[in-house]
Design the sequence.
């Protein structure tokens, strides 16, 4: 019998791309090039790669958003359960392939949770009885049982994303594709969603998960790494996770445990902290057993910084600040804080704990109710906008909330121009800040054509042009891949070394551990901790209550009784104590 | 802040068939439209007060209290000045105040307030999904009805993003209220562009998510909620029809107008 065209795809194939290429209309190079990819039934495949590597494009091919929704040149064959797609619309694929997007706000259309789950089932024409019968189990599956009558806008980020997943699951698709489902979530939301993904896998769903943090993909059956629209690695986590240089080069954050082991010369994969500890102890049997007390690693950088801080007077002083929105609960409750020149502070806490409200108080976006804020020794309420702006700069989370100009140079000049600086000074400052953020070559480009990472750096530059002494950054690395994150943080570190005090609001544990020297933890508007970052990561009860999980290097270090903040630090300690 | 005005109570009005609620919205607009005299508008106003009480919608009226106050106050004032008919009580070069202009101003203020109140009552008692279902029942295609209801969801998102953009630009020293009217409009460019770009992106994401949920497979999707018509709905429908007829008759017989003398 003559073999059929699809015979090389196994019968157990849930979805497959055969030689798929796609070039976005107006885009120069191909987003996908002759890609071959297969997802077998019941398999969970993680997809990683830098921004622009083609991850989302690959995912969108599976439900026909590419090429039906996105314009461009498409070639190749997409198969779902062995059947080649041809001419189907995106909506026709919905019952077979469910898709969950990063932007959870844009995926919810209804006024109550039950309606939201019903929505997709109504669209495909399921009878009322069947819809009603499926809502309960779908909500149950994502841990939202009993939420039926809630307004989706009143849910937390993690709950919203789980609701989006429930409404996809209700259609009982064979394949579920999740495109960076946790990028916009706080650590708690992230943990909820990944716990759900693990349950979905146990139930035998075929899953494709796109994610930047490799740690989260350790439980996958296979990991696919993309670069420039091509698959460069495709294998089980144990094989992929030890290729650290390659992962970093592809904009992926390799798991801390793998980095530690590589640094101490162990070329093996560990699927968990337990496993890593066992492997390391086997290699270095003389390592101490768990201490009661955690030894401190002397950190020259923070010791030095501490000295500078004590000598300088506070740039910013918050005295007994409390705040509540009209008719709302207290958002800030008796907050006291001092920020001195050269500090690097991370403000952390769950969504709704008051981080952004506090930051907005500091720059005068919210008028102080109870309490006082002093900037450079003067009451903030008596300062003009210009005076505040020259002392405290604020970079919003989403750079697109401020970018509007026709060129990069104009965008940077906007602030100084508003404050009436002369042209020569504006030109001087623009050059200075564009060079600081490494965008000098892009000065004449349209900001809207820059990458997300570049736009984020442009937003920082345009605030820096006012030469603030304190720079507040709200989640400066959201939506950036690992390489861009490192670059952004490198830039922020340089600014800090140049004497600018940094206040960074973040959810990302490794950023706090590696860059900040002081941590301010907020819970329900109260300061629960304000102190040294190393000390913070040894306070187990605080960590547990704030659902803030330390980076794996720190967790692994604690197994040996040491408070390490970075993989290299822990590796040095291990080799020094072996 | 909650985005929607819908209040999850279980009053009789809440439980009415959505088609009847959409019909009620129409009849109230219709009745208000035909009459100008404050006395003729008064019963409708009282009916709305009773409805607000019955449906527990006062929190929404409280939320929008300034809108109501400003609307009534300024409309009344404006019409008092511009409506220059009837024997004058006070007559200067700018102000011509007569019994008729007072009545007309008050009538206009009440009229707008009642239109607003009707909308608030409707949105307080009707879910977006019911609105779609009601429109569909009245012959509006599903896609059109859905687009209308989706816009209810989008507007607050855009307002939210506009507020953030205004904050971001003001921190860069931008002043919005400077110069003449044209200059002021131009000064909103640094807000309009980011909001517009953001809206495009959001709309694109939404459209993608919608299609990925099967939107468009069928021109007439099924409905999870059954909206049966029972006696309550029939009674409400008859009463509303009666109200509409009565108000048309009031207009037709000339009682709703304001006499100039």
Sequence:
């Amino acid at each position: 019998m003559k073999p059929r065209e699809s015979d090389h795809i196994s019968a157990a194939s849930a979805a497959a791309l055969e030689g798929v290429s796609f070039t976005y209309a107006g885009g120069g190079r191909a987003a996908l090039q002759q890609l071959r990819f297969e997802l077998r039934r019941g398999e969970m495949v993680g997809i990683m790669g830098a921004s622009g590597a083609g991850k989302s494009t690959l995912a969108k091919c599976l439900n026909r958003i590419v090429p039906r929704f996105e314009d461009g040149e498409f070639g190749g064959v997409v198969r779902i359960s062995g059947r080649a797609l041809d001419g189907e619309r995106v909506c026709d694929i919905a019952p077979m392939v469910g898709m969950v997007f990063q932007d959870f706000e844009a995926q919810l259309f209804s006024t109550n949770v039950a309606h939201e789950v019903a929505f997709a089932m109504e669209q495909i024409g399921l009878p009322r009885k069947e819809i009603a019968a499926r809502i309960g189990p779908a909500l149950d599956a994502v841990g939202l049982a009993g939420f039926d009558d809630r307004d989706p806008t009143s849910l937390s980020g993690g709950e919203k994303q789980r609701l989006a997943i429930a409404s996809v699951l209700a259609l009982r698709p064979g394949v579920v594709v999740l495109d960076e489902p946790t990028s916009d979530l706080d650590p708690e939301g992230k943990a909820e969603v990944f716990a759900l993904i693990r349950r979905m896998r146990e139930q035998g769903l075929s899953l494709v998960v796109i994610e930047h943090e490799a740690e989260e993909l350790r439980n996958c059956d296979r990991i696919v790494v993309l670069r420039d629209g091509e698959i460069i690695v495709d294998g089980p986590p144990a094989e992929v996770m030890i290729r650290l240089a390659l992962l970093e080069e592809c904009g992926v954050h390799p798991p801390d445990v793998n980095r530690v082991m590589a640094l101490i010369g162990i070329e093996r994969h560990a699927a968990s902290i337990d496993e890593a500890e066992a492997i390391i102890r086997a290699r270095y049997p003389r390592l101490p057993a768990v201490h009661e007390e955690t030894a401190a690693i002397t950190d020259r950088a923070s010791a030095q910084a501490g000295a500078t801080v004590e000598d300088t007077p506070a740039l910013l002083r918050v005295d007994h600040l409390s705040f509540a929105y009209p008719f709302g609960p207290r958002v800030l409750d008796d907050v006291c804080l001092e920020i001195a020149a050269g500090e690097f502070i991370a403000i952390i806490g769950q969504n709704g704990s008051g981080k952004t409200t506090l930051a907005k108080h500091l720059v005068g976006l919210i008028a102080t109710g109870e309490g006082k804020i002093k900037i450079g020794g003067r009451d903030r309420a008596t300062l003009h906008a210009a005076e505040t702006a020259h002392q405290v700069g604020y970079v919003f989370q989403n750079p697109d909330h401020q970018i509007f100009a026709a060129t990069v140079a104009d965008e940077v000049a906007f602030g100084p121009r508003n404050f009436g600086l002369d042209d020569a000074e504006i030109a001087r400052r623009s050059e200075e800040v564009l060079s600081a953020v490494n965008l000098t070559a892009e000065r004449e480009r349209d900001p809207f054509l820059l990458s997300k990472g570049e736009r984020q750096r442009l937003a920082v530059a345009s605030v820096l042009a006012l030469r603030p002494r304190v720079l507040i950054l709200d989640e400066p690395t959201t939506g950036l891949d690992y390489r861009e994150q490192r670059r952004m943080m490198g830039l922020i570190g340089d600014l800090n070394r140049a004497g600018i005090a940094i206040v960074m609001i973040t959810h990302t544990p490794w950023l706090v551990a590696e860059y900040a020297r002081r941590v301010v933890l907020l819970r329900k508007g109260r300061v629960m901790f304000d102190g040294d970052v190393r000390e913070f990561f040894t306070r187990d009860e605080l960590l547990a209550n704030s659902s803030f999980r330390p980076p794996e290097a720190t967790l692994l270090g604690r197994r040996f009784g040491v408070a390490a903040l970075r993989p290299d630090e822990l590796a040095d300690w291990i080799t020094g104590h072996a | 802040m909650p985005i929607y005005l819908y209040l999850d109570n279980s009053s009789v009005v809440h439980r009415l068939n959505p088609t009847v609620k959409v019909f009620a919205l129409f009849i109230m607009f219709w009745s208000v439209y035909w009459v100008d005299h404050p006395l003729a508008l008064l019963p409708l106003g009282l009916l709305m007060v009773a409805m607000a009480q019955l449906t527990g919608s006062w929190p929404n009226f409280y939320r929008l209290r300034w809108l109501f106050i400003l609307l009534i106050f300024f409309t009344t004032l404006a019409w008092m000045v511009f409506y220059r008919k009837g024997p004058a009580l006070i007559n200067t070069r700018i102000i011509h105040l007569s019994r008729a202009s007072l009545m007309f101003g008050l009538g206009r203020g009440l009229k707008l307030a009642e239109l607003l109140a009707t909308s608030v009552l409707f949105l307080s008692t009707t879910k977006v999904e019911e609105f779609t279902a009601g429109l569909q029942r009245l012959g509006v295609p599903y896609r059109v009805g859905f687009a209308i209801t989706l816009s209810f969801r989008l507007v607050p998102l855009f307002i939210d993003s506009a507020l953030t953009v205004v904050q971001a630009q003001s921190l860069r020293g931008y002043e919005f209220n400077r110069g003449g009217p044209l200059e002021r409009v131009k000064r909103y460019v640094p807000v309009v562009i980011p909001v517009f770009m953001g809206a495009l992106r959001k709309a694109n994401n939404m459209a993608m998510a919608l299609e990925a949920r099967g939107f468009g497979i069928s021109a007439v999707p099924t409905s999870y909620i059954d909206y049966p018509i029972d006696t309550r709905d029939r009674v409400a429908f008859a009463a509303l029809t009666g109200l509409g007829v009565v108000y048309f008759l009031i207009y037709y017989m000339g009682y709703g107008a304001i006499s100039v003398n």
